Amino acid sequence: MNVFTSFNEAAGIRNAVVTTGTFDGVHIGHKTILDRLNKLARQADGESVLITFHPHPRVVLYPESAGKGLRLISSQEEKIELLRKAGLQNVIIIEFTKEFSRTTSEEFIAEYLHGILRARVVVVGHNHHFGFNQQGDYKQLWNLRSKYGFDAEEIPMQEVQNEIVSSTKIREALAEGYIQRANAYLDHYYIIIGKAEQSVEDHFGSGLPMCFIPVTEETKLTPASGIYAVTAAGEAFYSKAMVIVDNDMPLNRRVRIHIFDYDKTVPGKKLTLFFHKKITDLNRVLDSREPTAQLMSALNDIGELIF
Questions:
Q1: Which one of 49, 59, 75, 118 is most buried, counting C-beta atoms within 10 A?
Q2: CATH 3.40.50.620 occupies which residues in the chain?
Q3: Which 8-state DSSP code applies to residue 21?
Q4: Segment 12-67, tens digit of pLDDT
């Protein structure tokens, strides 16, 4: 997958089939759009393209209200990896500024979709809006398709067990520790990617070898505080692991990890943590008279799980 940071870098894309949006979490609804994008690109002997933005528009436009405390399912690195796995061919990551936010929807269509990318087809999700004051939508794309020489398609909302999927619902599930529900909406495991660092802390007196992954991107959402069963994967490395999430340390955001097949070479390596299930609340362990016993019980529960 090609990653571009400006429209001009992407000017050479052939027969572009384009969508746009934040695609936070790259959930099942996003994947439906990407699948259609890739199919249309193959039919047009072209390439699939996502135009997305960083930082999130709400952070720029509403820093004191809607953007304050914004938490996203995926960091930028994680989103790129998920898009790659979904088979997208090109992503254009545009720096979102107040100046760019003043671009009207037709200016966006004329200057970027048509003028630079020469889009063959533009695909959007249900009720998607774009441009200054969110004026642009599928109806406008449809009405302007002849003027700018592209076709337009709208993808309906996706459902999981009769529930409409949205990034908001996934964030809510994660914030409550409902990992399995979030995974169903995502159609993949919730992940955290980062470089493992050696931990010298042992708050439980367990003697277990621990490392941790700093959560360096401010907007990255971590699940509710608790102990989780995960898979830890890296280059030539794959193991069950226990992850401790403690959201009461906001100034030092990180997750602690005990890896079953621990290797002294793990610290310093980039790991991807695939979250499977919440095992217990962290406070249940911390408030126990025997926190070490509670921790070891959670560890045994993870060891008996098949994943």
A1: 49
A2: 2-160
A3: S
A4: 999 999 999 999 999 999 999 999 999 999 999 999 999 999 999 999 988 876 56
Give residue for tokens 């930082």: 55
**Given this model, what pLDDT does residue 201 score?**
67
Half-sphere exposure of 177 (CA within 13 A, CB side): 16
Burial 210-228 (b: 16+ CB within 10 A, else e): bbbbebebebbbbbbbbbb
Pairing mode of beta strands 270-281, 191-195: antiparallel
Q: Dump pLDDT digits (tens) for 127-143.
A: 899 999 999 999 999 99
Specify the CATH architecture of the domain 189-304: Beta Barrel (2.40)
Strand bridging mode 90-95 / 121-125:
unpaired
Q: Computed over its alpha carbons, how large is the radius of gyration of the chain?
A: 22
Alpha-carbon span 106 to 144, nearest angstrom: 9
Instruction: Note the pTM of the prediction, 2 decimals.
Output: 0.92
For the chain, which residues score pLDDT lower than 50? none
Tell me which CATH code domain 2-160 carries.
3.40.50.620
